[in-house]
Task: inverse folding
């Protein structure tokens, strides 16, 4: 059975996370991805990753224009298993919260909520204002899953790729696509038995 | 000479105590800071020991900075020792890094069950900066409600989320950038290296040029 996912990328920082997610999804059997890149996502992809927006689009099975309100994912009649927005800007969060289905990403998220499907948001923002928290809280109340890209440190990441890989694994967990990721916590007593820590030099 | 400040830094039981090392190190170097009170919860001690090695009952300053210093005083959060139980103690502000969501919940509910929660409670009542660097994902509804509550009360919820637009090349650079931005919230402005402006920050411009040069070499 195929898992059909809508993937939105918007203009928050964190394009490497979205790109990595698409790469992993492409390598999973039985997953079909429907991608929408917002205008500013295209800009952040070019700024933050070594890829062009065109190359990133090629990672998906189906790609829609961000203004195409007539796309399949605009309608609840088109069955999907959920939607993930990564990275998710605070403007997108606000738009989804108020039902202001601006552009295809906002509309597809609106549809995901009304059809009671899984909606996973990866908001990249810090600090969070009362507006941000109020919007995220409201969406959590409606059933959306809020997965901010806060790295884990208990698995002693050495590179930025380590951080991004872990975040992608945690997002996939929320989509019931549990991967064989090595950085999972297994308890303090187990972790203590692992190789000695290398927490880096004291900054000078 | 500007007025010197006393800053409270708390470490709780969430991953990311390496960030505490960066923050403590920056505070220790900063001439604007006269003194740092380091509050460590029992689980914070466990995490420091896990992430740096060493014993849980060791001196956290030596673990974090590599050497002891008279500028930092350590207070265990499960004791009620120290001046932080009173607003009359003139702390400039408080940073909790890393901040567990249990700590956020207790602060949000006014449950001053230990020294860290009491010190945070006092920051809110005295209208001093209180910055909570939460380390958690996903956020559940209770987390979000508690974070909204603390924000309404004047606290700053500052999740430990790195940026990517400054093109970090190492995890250490992510820590450094986060620390610079964070310290501005307790009145300790840092460099403009990461400040976004027309054409990008200095960090992003330098790193993009280095990336291009590496590409040309390859």
Result:
């Amino acid at each position: 059975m195929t898992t059909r996912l809508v993937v939105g990328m918007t203009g928050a920082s964190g394009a490497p996370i979205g790109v990595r997610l698409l790469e992993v999804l492409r390598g999973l059997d039985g997953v079909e991805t429907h991608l929408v890149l917002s205008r500013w996502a295209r800009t952040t992809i070019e700024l933050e990753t070594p890829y062009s927006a065109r190359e990133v689009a090629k990672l998906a099975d189906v790609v829609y224009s961000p203004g195409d309100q007539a796309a399949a994912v605009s309608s609840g009649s088109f069955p999907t298993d959920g939607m993930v927005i990564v990275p998710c800007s605070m403007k997108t969060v606000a738009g989804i919260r108020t039902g202001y289905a601006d552009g295809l990403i906002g509309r597809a998220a609106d549809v995901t909520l009304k059809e009671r499907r899984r909606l996973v948001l990866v908001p990249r923002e810090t600090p969070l204002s009362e507006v941000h928290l109020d919007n995220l809280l409201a969406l959590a109340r409606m059933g959306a899953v809020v997965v901010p890209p806060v790295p884990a440190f208990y698995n002693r990441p050495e590179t930025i790729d380590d951080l991004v890989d872990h975040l992608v694994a945690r997002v996939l967990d929320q989509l019931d696509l549990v991967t064989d990721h090595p950085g999972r916590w297994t308890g303090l007593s187990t972790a203590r038995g692992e190789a000695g820590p290398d927490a880096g030099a004291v900054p000078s | 000479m500007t007025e010197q400040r006393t800053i409270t830094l708390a470490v709780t039981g969430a991953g990311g105590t390496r960030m505490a090392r960066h923050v403590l190190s920056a505070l220790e170097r900063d001439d604007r800071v006269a003194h740092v009170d380091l509050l460590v919860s029992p689980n914070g001690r466990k995490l420091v020991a896990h992430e740096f090695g060493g014993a849980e009952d060791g001196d956290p300053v030596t673990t974090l900075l590599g050497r002891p210093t008279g500028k930092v005083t350590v207070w265990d959060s499960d004791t009620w020792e120290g001046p932080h139980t009173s607003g009359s103690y003139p702390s400039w502000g408080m940073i909790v890094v890393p901040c567990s969501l249990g700590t956020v919940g207790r602060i949000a509910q006014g449950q001053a069950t230990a020294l860290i929660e009491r010190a945070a409670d006092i920051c809110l009542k005295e209208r001093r900066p209180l910055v909570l660097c939460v380390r958690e994902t996903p956020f559940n509804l209770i987390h979000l409600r508690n974070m909204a509550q603390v924000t309404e009360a004047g606290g700053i919820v500052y999740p430990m989320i790195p940026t990517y637009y400054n093109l970090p090349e190492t995890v250490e650079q992510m820590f450094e950038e986060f620390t610079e931005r964070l310290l501005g919230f307790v009145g300790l402005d840092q460099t403009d290296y990461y400040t976004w402006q027309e054409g990008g920050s200095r960090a992003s411009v330098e790193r993009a040029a280095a990336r291009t040069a590496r590409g040309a070499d390859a």
